[in-house]
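Database export, one record per block. Field names are fixed; values are copied verbatim from the stored entry.
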Amino acid sequence: MATTKTTTLTFRVDPTLKEALRAAAQAEHRSISNMIEVLIREHCEKNGIAIEQSKESNGEHSQ
């Protein structure tokens, strides 16, 4: 499995929203980070927002 580069995103949310996110992630056996990524991807797909594929996820590796 190829390792892709990631970036850090830090933000604040209401504690009740964080708890709802934790519960949603747990229900789908995901981490909170992965749940946020899934939600963002679903939102973008639903609203016609393209997400550029990184070179690493396309199987291309720069050397």
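Remark 1: The two ends are 18 Å apart (CA to CA).
Remark 2: The CA atoms of residues 51 and 59 lie 16 Å apart.
End of record.
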